[in-house]
Design brief:
Layout: H1 2-24, E1 34-39, E2 48-49, E3 55-56, H2 58-70, E4 73-78, H3 81-89, E5 95-96, H4 104-107, E6 110-112, E7 117-126, E8 141-145, H5 149-156, H6 158-161, E9 164-168, H7 171-179, E10 185-189, H8 190-198, E11 203-205, E12 212-217, E13 220-222, H9 227-243, H10 245-254, H11 258-262, H12 265-268, H13 271-277, H14 279-311, H15 316-331, H16 334-349, H17 355-381, H18 384-392, H19 397-427, H20 439-450, H21 453-482
Parallel strand pairs: 1-4, 1-5, 8-9, 8-10
Antiparallel strand pairs: 2-3, 6-13, 7-10, 7-11, 7-12
Family: Belongs to the binding-protein-dependent transport system permease family.
EC number: 4.2.2.-
Main location: membrane
C-alpha cells in the first residue's frame, strides 16, 4: 500500500512536471534561436514594469532592439538580482541584463559585452537629514543592496568613514529603510536613485556633482558559452550607437515624466487609485497565488498522508525513511529549498526546471513534511485498543489501518490540516524570490515603478487577509461536516 502510494505520487508529480515543462517552452520560428534572459525587474529605469504591466526600461529596450536586429527571440525571467545572476552561472539562463556592472570578479565567472551604459554612484540620505558629509556617517548604519556595484563602492568607504552596513535584496526596501530613519544613508547608481526621487521617494542626493565610479553596465553570459549571443549583442549595440537608436532609448527613460511609466499622480497618491489602476496586475498575482496554494495543498496533503502512514508502519525501514524525510524538509528554510531546487539542482542534473514547477515541488516537500508529522501524531493518538480490537476480529494490519485507524485519525487531524492550509497560502509569498509572479512579487514590481511602498503593501496585506479569512471559513465549514 505504501509503495503504491509513493509510486503514484511520484508519477503525478512527474506528469505535472512534464506538462509545465511543455507549457513553458516558448514558441519561436524554426530559423530563430530562442534564449532565456534573466533580469531584476525592480531596478528602474533599467528594468521595471510600466503602468500597463509590461517590462520596460533601458535594458529591456536595448535587448528588444538587439533581438530584432539579430533575428532571435527570448524568454524573460524576472527575479531578484542575485538569483538572476546565479541562473546564468548555473546554466539555467543564457544571459542576464540587469544594470549589472562589469567587474574583474564577474569576468572570472561570465563573458561580458562591451559596456552599454556608464554610471556613477551617489550617496543618499532622507530629506531633512542632519547628515551633511560622509564623516557624519561614523557609527551610523548605511543600507546597501546585495550584489550591486553601488554596494561594492559603499563597502570600500566603510573603514575610512567608520559606518556600519546593512544589506537588502530589493531596492525599495533599502530606500524605505533610509526614509524611515533605520539607516542613515545608502549608496545607489545615479540614474536609479534619480528615477526613484522623481517618483516621490523622499530622499536627497548628496554628491550629484562628484559621483563615485560605478563602472559600465554589461550584458553577461556564462563563461565559455553563448559566444554567438554575445557577439550579436555587441554588433547590434554598435549599430544602435551609430544610428542614434541608443541615444533615443536613454533619453526616453532618463528624461521622462513620472506619469509616462508609473501612471498619473492621482493614481499613485491613494490606496484606491493604486488598486484600480493596477487591478489586472493584482488579479493575476492573486490567481497565481491561489493556483500555487490549491495544488500545493492537494499534493502536500497526499505526500504528508503517505509519510504519516509510513511513520507508523510495522516496517522499520519505512518508519526510519519517513522520520528522515520529515526531519530533513522541516529543517530546511523554504527559501533555501526553493533556491536549491530552481537554481542549484539544474546545475547538477542538467535539466532546466520551470519556476512554477520548482515552487510547487518546494511547497510539496516542505509543507508535506509538516503535514506528515501531524498525520503521524494523529494516527498515534487513536486509542491503541482500536487496533487490538480490529486485529482480534481477524482484520489484517492494512485493512485495520484503512477501515479503523485512518478514519478516526483524520478526524483528529482536521484542525491541523486547516492550519497547514493557511500556512501554505502564506508561504507562497516566499516563492517570489525565484521569480514566480504571485501576489507578493506583483506588489514588488508595482512598488519598483511608483515607489509607493506603504500603499501597495497595505493592499497586498488586505488581499491576503481576505483570502485567508475566506479559507478559514471554508475550512471550518468542512470541519463541522466531517465531525
Amino acid at each position: 500500500m505504501q509503495k503504491k502510494g509513493i509510486i503514484s505520487l511520484l508519477a503525478a508529480v512527474a506528469m505535472m512536471f512534464g506538462l509545465w515543462q511543455f507549457a513553458s517552452q516558448p514558441t519561436a520560428a524554426a530559423d530563430e534561436p530562442n534564449y532565456i534572459i534573466s533580469t531584476d525587474a525592480t531596478y528602474a529605469p533599467f528594468d521595471f514594469q510600466d503602468k500597463n504591466n509590461q517590462y520596460v526600461g533601458i535594458d529591456m529596450d536595448i535587448l528588444k532592439e538587439v533581438a530584432k536586429r539579430k533575428h532571435f527571440t527570448y524568454t524573460l525571467k524576472p527575479m531578484s538580482f542575485n538569483a538572476a545572476a546565479q541562473m546564468v552561472a548555473n546554466g539555467q539562463a543564457d544571459g542576464i541584463i540587469a544594470g549589472m556592472m562589469i567587474t574583474d570578479e564577474r569576468k572570472q565567472v561570465y563573458d561580458v559585452s562591451v559596456p552599454y551604459y556608464q554610471s556613477g554612484v551617489a550617496w543618499v540620505v532622507k530629506d531633512g537629514s542632519k547628515v551633511k558629509s560622509l564623516e557624519d556617517l561614523k557609527g551610523k548604519t548605511v543600507a546597501l543592496k546585495t550584489g550591486t556595484a553601488a554596494a561594492t563602492y559603499g563597502k570600500s568607504l566603510q573603514d575610512k568613514y567608520g559606518f556600519k552596513i546593512k544589506y537588502f535584496n530589493d531596492t525599495d526596501t533599502m530606500y524605505n529603510d533610509v526614509v524611515n530613519g533605520n539607516s542613515a544613508a545608502t549608496f545607489e547608481d545615479m540614474p536609479v536613485i534619480s528615477y526613484a526621487i522623481k517618483n516621490g521617494m523622499k530622499l536627497k542626493v548628496m554628491n550629484a556633482n562628484d559621483l563615485g565610479n560605478a563602472g559600465g553596465c554589461g550584458f553577461f553570459v556564462k563563461k565559455g558559452e553563448n559566444a554567438q549571443l554575445l557577439a550579436d549583442f555587441n554588433q547590434a549595440f554598435a549599430e544602435m550607437k551609430q544610428d542614434g537608436t541608443y541615444d533615443k532609448i536613454i533619453a526616453k527613460y532618463l528624461n521622462a515624466k513620472q506619469s509616462t511609466f508609473a501612471g498619473d499622480k492621482k493614481d499613485n497618491n491613494s490606496v484606491w487609485g493604486i488598486l484600480t489602476s493596477n487591478k489586472s496586475a493584482f488579479a493575476k498575482g492573486l490567481w497565481e497565488t491561489v493556483v500555487l496554494t490549491v495544488f500545493g495543498i492537494i499534493f502536500a496533503s497526499l505526500w504528508g498522508l503517505i509519510l504519516g502512514i509510513m511513520g507508523i508502519s510495522q516496517n522499520k525501514f519505512f518508519r526510519g525513511l519517513a522520520t528522515t524525510i520529515i526531519y530533513t524538509f522541516r529543517g530546511l528554510p523554504l527559501m533555501v529549498l526553493a533556491f536549491f531546487i530552481y537554481i542549484g539542482l539544474p546545475g547538477v542534473i542538467g535539466v532546466k526546471i520551470p519556476a512554477f514547477t520548482a515552487g510547487l515541488i518546494t511547497l510539496i516537500l516542505n509543507e508535506g513534511a509538516y503535514t506528515g508529522a501531524f498525520v503521524r501524531g494523529g494516527f498515534e493518538a487513536v486509542d491503541k485498543g482500536q487496533m487490538e480490537a480490529a486485529r482480534s476480529l481477524g482484520l489484517p494490519y492494512g485493512s485495520a489501518m484503512r477501515k479503523v485507524i485512518v478514519p478516526q485519525g483524520l478526524k483528529i487531524m482536521v484542525p491541523s490540516f486547516i492550519n497547514q492550509f493557511i500556512i501554505t497560502l502564506k508561504d507562497t509569498s516566499i516563492l517570489s524570490a525565484i521569480g514566480i509572479l504571485e501576489l507578493t512579487q506583483t506588489g514588488t514590481l508595482i512598488v519598483a515603478r511608483n515607489s509607493q511602498g506603504f500603499r501597495v503593501w497595505a493592499i497586498v496585506a488586505a488581499i491576503y487577509l481576505i483570502v485567508i479569512t475566506l479559507l478559514t471559513w471554508l475550512s471550518n465549514w468542512v470541519e463541522k461536516k466531517v465531525r
